[in-house]
Structures are given as structure tokens and as C-alpha cells.
């Protein structure tokens, strides 16, 4: 049932995002099912009334979509109306002011979706001390016990596994087992993962904890932190809010942290801060606020967790006052030198200019905070992680390499969330310091009138010298009689242009004219970038490394080994390269879209650049995705300058539903090559 729900969702998504008719064959390949099943799905969609799918001899398309709101995954649906005992360790603790105990709703709002069923089960189990009947859960979800056991519970186990939690089932009774600390991590992660992706969004918190005045609590926390004069960014504050809300909710069902679960020496950490007193005062103010608001003191171990979270949220220096000497006093010179060296290695590997000092100061401080979070086991879920990974894949890949080198140097485990934060820093820097790869050429057509012509050219060169090379300045007659070839023709006279892109401007280079030139210039430079990538891709896509419909057992590792063996047989790579590809996959999955995985090395270079292609009709489970294409990429050291653009363009191509459908319909290397490079 869960697989069917996912395929129907995917079918609707494809039809919503394609601009033409889609054949049943293409849909069947995209969904990994039969054409008959596709027809059945479309009939069900039309019967539901939410969408209407038109059919013709050319295939299917979505005619219209109702204005009904999209289903939302059910998480923690509502609070019961009956109060529960809280803080049994303190008989004087009042429960009257506490929100009622959180309880999973008997029927999830979107109970027909696999995510909703999974989250309902988690919300039910995490708030129960006693085991829960499998029959009661199945009845609440309106599914059979078989569907619950075979479809829903495996998803629950997959989601909770990274948090060291287990789902046990004995005598038809379900129970979630594990440390309280890890259950709180799961709750916090669910809050972030279900967010819309904005750092300061509180919408998810409101839906998770509807009985709480989330806005009011957030405003009070902001007030407390502002009074403390600690520097805490909005995202760190949002995490703090999540953590405190989770503490209150867990305390309602008598789920306190034990000393065994949290042996961190928080006092020693706080003592290392120059703002130590302010951190403790901030934590005490938070605790006092909650005792006043909810009538219950926060237990000592939970208070220590709040102190720890505040300490690891504080910026020890503002960036404008940061110097290398100040930073070394905090991190020590060995740590700072390691980070700088890893950053240099990253820049050298990816063929970019080395980072400037201002960025290095920020990066060293950020990585010191990452290191502190790693050793104190405090995680910050990143709501933008998946978006960064997909939309900025080359930058994310640089962050993966950086994190890999960092982990090796400091024996610290770096999560995908932290990798995405590193990518955010690197991407912002590259965007700020971006310089074009090669200049565009331009001819300027302007009539001589006093010194206006020379002034126009001078202004152009001053404004666009890094991006534009003026190869000729001509009158209208001279251009029409003998037009030179150029990327842009910047003209003050509306003349016919047969070669290049025309930009009609006034004789004075004002902001509006400059904006018009920049817009056209961006198109030219993007075309040049795509042209280079197109030529490189045609060179590295090889007929002998193209495979159609190869089914293997063993998951992604088996497919990496198989494609790697083809490349080894032709002398492109060796065993060490293939092992390095496996290492890259363990650091972070290379499934960047729903249809595509791009395994590649993290350290090694190929003897010759290549792309090995596996195209399967039946989707291959790959991390969080199911993919139909596996592109094993090997880049020779001398070709690394092409890697960023190549990776970016491949993922951009497969992010287009139209392009993906065309690629899915190919059956041979020649068809694949034409569809693949034709869209570039």
C-alpha cells in the first residue's frame, strides 16, 4: 500500500511538471511498474476528483488541479483534554498550568499517505510507557495488520534507526525502546524535518505542539537572549525553542534524563567561555520563565541540557572583531592550521582560487563550533540540507570532501546536516566572489559625437572589465559593411545583427542600460559554460560503458562494484579508486534526485575521465531515493576544472521532469546520448 501511494504521488508530480503529453510507457518506466497499472492509477486519480488526467493517443496530461489543500504528514495531532501527573519527583509541582499530555490522534489527517501512517505510529509509541496493541494501531489507521507490519512498520524502523532507537514487537504488542536522550533527538529532528525549509519558521512547531503558545514562547526566549547580550543567531534560537518544548512535553509523561544518559561535563565547557556567566544567567532566566509559566521547575539534568545547548549556540566572537590571534586563543593554533590546510586542499582539488582570509576566519570558527557539537553529541538538524544537496550539488560535494578530511583529522563524525551547513558557507563565499570563466567578446556600435563614443567605451570597460572584452568600436555603416564576429553587439542604433546577441542601449551608460547588458552577458556566459560541459560530456560518455537493465542484489555497493569493474577492465581506474567511491557513498548518498545517483570518488582521480551509465527500467533503492540511472563518474586530475559544471548540469538536467521522461524512454546508447546532450 505504501509503495502504491508513493507511485501515485510520483505520477501526479510528473504530470504536474511536464509540458507535454506523457505516454503510458514513459510513465511505467518512471514509476517502475506496468502500463496496465499506470492506467489503473489514473482511473483512481480521476475517481478521487482532486485531479483530472486527460488521455489521448499521445499519452496523458493533467488538465486541472483542485484548490484543495495538500495532505500534510500527520505527526503529533492533538492534546487530550485530561491532565496528567507531571514531575513526580516534586510533590509540590502544579500540573494545572501545564498543557495536557500529548497524544497521537486516533485518525491521522492524511491517513492514506505512507508518511502520515509512519508518523502516527511514532507519535503513538513515543508517548506511551506501556506496549501498544498492533490491532489498535491498525484499526486507527484503517489498514490491515498485514499492511501495518509489512508496509508501515519497516518505514518506522528506518526512520528511528539513526537515533539508536528500536521498535520491538512481541505478542502483537509494539513498543519503542531506547534512551530518553535519543527519543528527544528524534522529536527535535521530526520538528525540523517537517519544516518548510526556512530557518526561522515556527509553523511546524505550531502544528507539532498546538497546545503551546509557540509564538509567545519564542518571543520570550528572544527577549531573554537579548537581555543576556549573547550572540545567538535565529536558527540556533529556533533549535533552542524546539529543545525546550520537547523537554516540557517529555516531562509531562515523566520522561526525565538520567545521569547515565548525559555524563557531559557541562560546567567545564561553560568555564571555557568568556561569556560563561552570561550563559548561566540566560539558562536560569529560561528555567525561571518556565517555572513561572508552567508551575514546574526543570529537573537538574534537563537544566544542564539547556545550559549545554545555549553554550553551543553562542557565537564567541562577532565576525567583524575576529582576528587570527583571537581565534587561535580559542581554538589553538594546531586546530586553526588544520582547518586552513583542509580548506586549501579543497580549493586545489576543485580548481578554484584559494579562500580569502575573511572567509577563513569564519570557516575556522564555524568548524570549531561543529567540533564542539560533535564531541558533546549535540546535533542541529538542518531543514535546508536536502535542498542544498540537490540545488547546489557541486558546492555540496566540496563540503563532503572538506568534511571527510576534517573527520579524518579530528576523529569526529560529521552528519549530512553539518555538511549542508559547510556547503552553505562555501556557497555563499563563492557567490560573493564569483568571477566568470572566460570573457565574452563585444562589438560596440556608436556614432562619433564629441567624446561620447570614447566615454561610453571607457564606462563599459570599467564596469565589465572582468566579464567583457570589447574587440571593436564601429560606426553603423562600418558594421553593416563588414560585421566582425562577437558574442554581443552593443549598439546605440537599432541595426540588424546576424551574428551575436544584440543589446540596444542609449548613448549614455546609465544603470538601466548596464542592467540590460548584464542580463544578456549572463546568457552568453551561461551558454559558453554549457558549451564546454557539452563538449566534455560527449568525450567522456562511452558506448562501452553503457549498460541497460542490470539487476543486482546488494544495494548501491553492488552497482558501484559492477560499473567499477567495467572501468577497471579498460584501465581507467584501479581497485583503490572503487574503494574511494564506496567511501564517498558512506559519507553522504550520491542520489541527488528521485531518478539519478552519481557515485564518484572523494579523494582519488581516474586515469582517464569517463562516465559509466546504467539505465534500469526497475528503480534501484538508493538512500532516500529510488533511481533509474546510475552514472559512475571518474575525473582525471587534469580535468577537475570541468567537474563542478558537469555535476551541476547533469543534476539540473535530471531535475527537469520533461528531460527525465525523454531519458527514460531511451533504449540504446545513441538514443541516450542524443537525449542527454541534446537538452544541453
From TrEMBL:
PTS EIIA type-2 domain segment(s): 539-679
Pfam families named among the record's database cross-references: HTH_11, Mga, PRD, PTS_EIIA_2
Biological process, per Gene Ontology: regulation of DNA-templated transcription
InterPro entries attached to this UniProt entry: BglG_antiterminators, HTH_11, Mga_HTH, PRD, PRD_sf, PTrfase/Anion_transptr, PTS_EIIA_type-2_dom, WH-like_DNA-bd_sf
Coiled-coil stretches noted in the UniProt entry, renumbered to this chain: none
SUPFAM superfamilies: Phoshotransferase/anion transport protein, PTS-regulatory domain, PRD, Winged helix' DNA-binding domain
Region span, Disordered: 52-71
Record keywords, A-Z: Activator, Repeat, Transcription, Transcription regulation
Domain PRD: 327-436
Ranges of compositional bias, category Basic and acidic residues: 52-61
Name by which UniProt lists this protein: PRD domain-containing protein
Species name: Enorma shizhengliae
Lineage: Bacteria, Bacillati, Actinomycetota, Coriobacteriia, Coriobacteriales
Amino acid at each position: 500500500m505504501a509503495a502504491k501511494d508513493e507511485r501515485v504521488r510520483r505520477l501526479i508530480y510528473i504530470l504536474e511538471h511536464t509540458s507535454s503529453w506523457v505516454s503510458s510507457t514513459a510513465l511505467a518506466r518512471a514509476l517502475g511498474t506496468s502500463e496496465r497499472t499506470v492506467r489503473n492509477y489514473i482511473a483512481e486519480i480521476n475517481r478521487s476528483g482532486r485531479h483530472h488526467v486527460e488521455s489521448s493517443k499521445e499519452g496523458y496530461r493533467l488538465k486541472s488541479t483542485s484548490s484543495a489543500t495538500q495532505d500534510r504528514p500527520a505527526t503529533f495531532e492533538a492534546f487530550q483534554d485530561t491532565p496528567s501527573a507531571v514531575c513526580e519527583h516534586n510533590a509540590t509541582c502544579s500540573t494545572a498550568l501545564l498543557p495536557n499530555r500529548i497524544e497521537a490522534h486516533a485518525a491521522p489527517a492524511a491517513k492514506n499517505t505512507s508518511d502520515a501512517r509512519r508518523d502516527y505510529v511514532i507519535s503513538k509509541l513515543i508517548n506511551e510507557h506501556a506496549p501498544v496493541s498492533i490491532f489498535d494501531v491498525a484499526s486507527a489507521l484503517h489498514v490491515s495488520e498485514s499492511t501495518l507490519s509489512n508496509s508501515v512498520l519497516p518505514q518506522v524502523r528506518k526512520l528511528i534507526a539513526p537515533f539508536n532507537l528500536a521498535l520491538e514487537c512481541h505478542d502483537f504488542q509494539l513498543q519503542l525502546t531506547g534512551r530518553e536522550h535519543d527519543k528527544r533527538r528524534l522529536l527535535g529532528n521530526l520538528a525540523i524535518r517537517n519544516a518548510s525549509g526556512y530557518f526561522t519558521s515556527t509553523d511546524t512547531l505550531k502544528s507539532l505542539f498546538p497546545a503551546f503558545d509557540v509564538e509567545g514562547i519564542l518571543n520570550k526566549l528572544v527577549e531573554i537572549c537579548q537581555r543576556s547580550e549573547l550572540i545567538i543567531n535565529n536558527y540556533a534560537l529556533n533549535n533552542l525553542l524546539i529543545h525546550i518544548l520537547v523537554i516540557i512535553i517529555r516531562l509531562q509523561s515523566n520522561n526525565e534524563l538520567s545521569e547515565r544518559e548525559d555524563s557531559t561535563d557541562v560546567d567545564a565547557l561553560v568555564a571555557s567561555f568568556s561569556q560563561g556567566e552570561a550563559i548561566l544567567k540566560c539558562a536560569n532566566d529560561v528555567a525561571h520563565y518556565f517555572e513561572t509559566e508552567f508551575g514546574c521547575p526543570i529537573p537538574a539534568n534537563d537544566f544542564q541540557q539547556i545550559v549545554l545547548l545555549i553554550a553551543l549556540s553562542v557565537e564567541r566572537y562577532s565576525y567583524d572583531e575576529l582576528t587570527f590571534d583571537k581565534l587561535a586563543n580559542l581554538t589553538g593554533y594546531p586546530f586553526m592550521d588544520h582547518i586552513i590546510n583542509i580548506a586549501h586542499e579543497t580549493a586545489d582539488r576543485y580548481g578554484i582560487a584559494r579562500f580569502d582570509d575573511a572567509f577563513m576566519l569564519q570557516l575556522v570558527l564555524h568548524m570549531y563550533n561543529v567540533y564542539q557539537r560533535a564531541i558533546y553529541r549535540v546535533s542541529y538538524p538542518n531543514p535546508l540540507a536536502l535542498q542544498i544537496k540537490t540545488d547546489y550539488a557541486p558546492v555540496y560535494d566540496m563540503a563532503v570532501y572538506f568534511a571527510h578530511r576534517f573527520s579524518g583529522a579530528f576523529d569526529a563524525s560529521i552528519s549530512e546536516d553539518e555538511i549542508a551547513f559547510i556547503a552553505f558557507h562555501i556557497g555563499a563565499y563563492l557567490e560573493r566572489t564569483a568571477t566568470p570563466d572566460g570573457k565574452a567578446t563585444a562589438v560596440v556600435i556608436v556614432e562619433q559625437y564629441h567624446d561620447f563614443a570614447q566615454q561610453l567605451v571607457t564606462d563599459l570597460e570599467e564596469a565589465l572589465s572582468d566579464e567583457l572584452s570589447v574587440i571593436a568600436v564601429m560606426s553603423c555603416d562600418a558594421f553593416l559593411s563588414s560585421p566582425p564576429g562577437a558574442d554581443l553587439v552593443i549598439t546605440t542604433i537599432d541595426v540588424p545583427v546576424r551574428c551575436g546577441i544584440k543589446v540596444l542601449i542609449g548613448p549614455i551608460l546609465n544603470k538601466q542600460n548596464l542592467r540590460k547588458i548584464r542580463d544578456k552577458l549572463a546568457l552568453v556566459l551561461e551558454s559558453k559554460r554549457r558549451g564546454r560541459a557539452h563538449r566534455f560530456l560527449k568525450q567522456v560518455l562511452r558506448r562501452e560503458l553503457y549498460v541497460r537493465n542490470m539487476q543486482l542484489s546488494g544495494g548501491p555497493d553492488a552497482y558501484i562494484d559492477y560499473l567499477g569493474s567495467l572501468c577497471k577492465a579498460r584501465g581507467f581506474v584501479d581497485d583503490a579508486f572503487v574503494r574511494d567511491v564506496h567511501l564517498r557513498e558512506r559519507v553522504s548518498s550520491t542520489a541527488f534526485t528521485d531518478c539519478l545517483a552519481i557515485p564518484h570518488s572523494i579523494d582519488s582521480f581516474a586515469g582517464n575521465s569517463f562516465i559509466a551509465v546504467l539505465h534500469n527500467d526497475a528503480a534501484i533503492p538508493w538512500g532516500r531515493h529510488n533511481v533509474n540511472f546510475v552514472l559512475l563518474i571518474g575525473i582525471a586530475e587534469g580535468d577537475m576544472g570541468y567537474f563542478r559544471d558537469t555535476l551541476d548540469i547533469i543534476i539540473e538536467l535530471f531535475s527537469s521532469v520533461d528531460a527525465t521522461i525523454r531519458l527514460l524512454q531511451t533504449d540504446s546508447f545513441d538514443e541516450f546520448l542524443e537525449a542527454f546532450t541534446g537538452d544541453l
